[in-house]
Amino acid sequence: MPSCSARSKPRNLESRRVCQVVHSSVYNNTIHRFPLSHNLRHLCTQTLTMSSDLPRDGDLATNGDANGTLHDTPTIATATEPASTAVPVSKDVENVMYSDIGINTLLNRLKQSIASSRDFSDFLKKRGAVEEDHAKGLRRLVKQTSDNIHSKESRQGSYVVRLDEAMRLHDRIADNGMQFSLALHQMHEDLNELSLNMEKGRKHWKHEGLNAEKRATDAEAAMEKAKAKYDGLAEDYDRARTGDAKSSRRIGLKGMKSAPQHEEDLLRKLQVADSDYQAKVQAAKSQREELIRASRPQAVKALQELINECDSGLALQLQKFASFNEKLLLGNGIAVSPLPASDPSAPVQHSLRDIVLDIDNKTDFDNYVTGHVSKIPVRTSDIKYEQHPTLRPKQQTPVPASRQPSTTVSGPALPETPLSTVSTQQSTYPTVAPPPAATQSPTQPFYGNPGNPPYPTDPPQQYNSAPYPTSSGAPRGFSASTQSTSAPYSPATPATMGVQQSFSSQPRPISPAPTATALPPPLKPVFGVNLDDLYARDQTAVPMIVYQCMQAVDLFGLDVEGIYRLSGTASHVQQIKALFDHDSSLVDFRNPAAFYHDVNSVAGLLKQFFRELPDPLLTRRSYNGFINAARIDDDTSRRDAVHSVINELPDPNYATLRAVVLHLNRVQEHYAKNRMSTSNLAICFAPSLMGSHTGPQIADASLQARVLDTILTNTFQIFDED
C-alpha cells in the first residue's frame, strides 16, 4: 500500500472523488432502476457536500472520465506530476514533521483521516440501507406479481410459465442486492472499528507527544525567566559598583545601608541568580535534546503509522466497494443475459429477452378456448314454435258432450279444463301417453295401495323442467278446476287432486347444500382422526378439509370483518361436518352455496377440526419446547427457538402447519378490512393448534398466543413460500 506521504492530495477528498465517479457509473449503467439511482445520486451528493474544498468537474479526469466512467484501474494519487518534485516535497515534509509544529500537524492530519473514514462509513451504511430497501421492495413485488399471475383472472399457458421464470430472475437480482447490502454493512462495521482504534491511538500520542513538547517549552520558559532575573541583578550590581547615587541609598531594617553593604548584598544575589540561571539552561538543554532525540521522533513515527494505517484501511474499503459494485452489476447483467455455456451438456440458461420471446399468444388463446369444449350446451330439440296450453282450447273445436269422459262431473266448463290440463301435464313426460285405464290409476294412493304409484319416480323432475314457473305453484286456472272437482262423490276428484299434489309438492330450485333432515353416514370420517391416519388413508399431506376450508376463506372471506373470530351457524357447521365425514372428496367450497354462503361457518369448522384432533397440530410432545421458546424475550432468539421445535414436528403436522400459517398470513395482509392482525389470529387459533386451556395449560394461555404470533410474524423466515 503506498504511503500517505507520497500523495499530493488530501485523502478525504480523494475518497469522495472516487465515490462520486463510481456512483456516476452506477447511475449511468442502471437506467432501469430510476428510484434507486436517484437515491444514490442524492446520497453521493450529500456526502460530497460534507467537504469544504471539493474539486472542480475538470479534476474528474484524474481518476475517470468527465461523464463518470471509471478507468480500468482507478488511481487515487496524481500520476502526472514530474518526478523531480518528489525530493523537495519529501524534504519539506520531513522538515515540517520534525519541527515544533510537527506533532500538531500530524494530529490534525490523523483527525482528517479519521473523519474521512467516518464519512465514508456513514455513506456505506446509507448506501446499504438503500440497496436493502430496494431488494426487499423487489421481493415483495415479485411475490405479489407471482400471486396475481396464478389467479383465475390472469392468463395461463406459456405466459404464466415464462413470467414465472422472469419473476425468479428478478428474485435472483434481489438476492444480489441483499448480498451487496450485507457486504456494505460489514464494510461499515470495519471502518467504524478502524476509526475507533485510530481515535484511541490519536488521543494516546496526543497526550504523550504534547507533554514532551510542553516539558521542553516549560524548561525554556523557566530559563528565560531566570535569565531576566539574572540580567536585572547584574545591572543593579553594576550601578552600585560605579557609585550611582540612585542605587547607593538603600533602607534596611537597621536604617540606611552603606554603599559597600549594598554592593555586597547585590553581589550575593547576583551569584545566586547566576547559579539558578546556569541550572535552568542546563535543564532546558537536556529537555530539548531528549525531545529531539527520542520523544518527538517516537511520536512522529507513531502518528505517521496511524495515518498510514487509517488511509490504507480506507483505501482497501474503497477498492472493495468498487469491486462489490462491479460484482453487483455483473451479476445482475448475467442474470438478465447469461453467457453461453462452454459445456454443451450443461443446462441452457435463458435470458430475459428469450423468456419474453417464448410467450406464444396464439397457442395460449387456442388452449384457453378449447378448454371450454366440454361446456358447450347440448341441444335436445330443434327450434320450433310451441303453443301455450292456455291458448290451445280457444283454437280447437269444442269437444262434443257425447265424447266427454264419464269420469267427469257435470257442470259448466268442468270437463274441458281439467282434461286439457291433465293432457298437457302428461305431454311433458318423455314416454307415450298412458292407456285409458290410467285415468283411474291416480286414485290408488287414496285407497291404500302404495305399492303402485300413480306416476314414475321422476315426474317431479319433469315438472321442474316444465315451462311452468315453479315458484308460483300450479298454473292459473288449475286450482279453480281442482276446487270445483273436490266433491267427495266425484270420480274425477282423486285424479285431479293427484295432479294438483304433483304441482304443489314441486321443490324449489335445488341447491348444492344438503338438507338438515338427511345427514349422510360417516363413511370416511375425518374429525377426531390423527393426521398420520388421515395421511395413510387419503395420501394427502394436508387433509382435504383443511384445504377446502382455507380455499373458501381465501376466495370469499379475506375481506370479512372478524373472520376466524366470529362464530358461524351451529346447524350449518354440523351439516358440513357430516359431509366431510361422509366423503371429503365430494365437497367443493368453490361454490359458496355449498356452505350456505356463510364463510364464518367454514372458519369455525376449520378450528373445530383442529380442536377435535386426538393429538394437537403442534403435538403434546413439542408443547414444552414451544412454551419455553415463548418465554424468551429477544425476538430473534425466540424465533429461532420456535423454528427449531417446528422442524422436529412429524411430516403431516409440519405440512399442515405450513399451509395454515401461509393461509393466516394472507388473512392478516387484509387487516385493513378484516381487522384480524397476527396477534388477533394468534389468540383465536392458539387453543385449537396447541390444545385447550385446561389444567396447568390455563397459565400458558398468553404463552400459547405468543408462540403462534411469533410464527405468523416470521412466516417467510420459518417456512418456504413456494
Structure in words:
With 722 residues, this protein is mainly α. Among the domains are: 10-78; 463-510, no CATH class; 531-718, Orthogonal Bundle (Phosphatidylinositol 3-kinase, Chain A). It is 61% helix and 1% strand. The chain has helices spanning 11-29, 34-48, 86-97, 102-149, 158-241, 245-248, 259-336, 352-357, 361-370, 392-395, 416-427, 459-464, 478-484, 492-504, 531-538, 544-556, 570-583, 599-611, 623-630, 635-647, 651-668, 671-674, 678-690, 701-713, 715-718; strands spanning 250-252, 255-257. The chain has a two-stranded antiparallel ribbon with strand order 1-2. The radius of gyration is 50 Å and the shape is elongated.
List keywords for this structure.
two-stranded antiparallel ribbon, mainly alpha, 722 residues, Phosphatidylinositol 3-kinase, Chain A, elongated
Topology:
Elements: H1 11-29, H2 34-48, H3 86-97, H4 102-149, H5 158-241, H6 245-248, E1 250-252, E2 255-257, H7 259-336, H8 352-357, H9 361-370, H10 392-395, H11 416-427, H12 459-464, H13 478-484, H14 492-504, H15 531-538, H16 544-556, H17 570-583, H18 599-611, H19 623-630, H20 635-647, H21 651-668, H22 671-674, H23 678-690, H24 701-713, H25 715-718
Antiparallel strand pairs: 1-2
Helix pairs in contact: 1-2, 1-4, 1-7, 2-4, 4-5, 4-7, 5-7, 13-14, 16-18, 16-21, 17-18, 18-23, 19-20, 19-24, 23-24
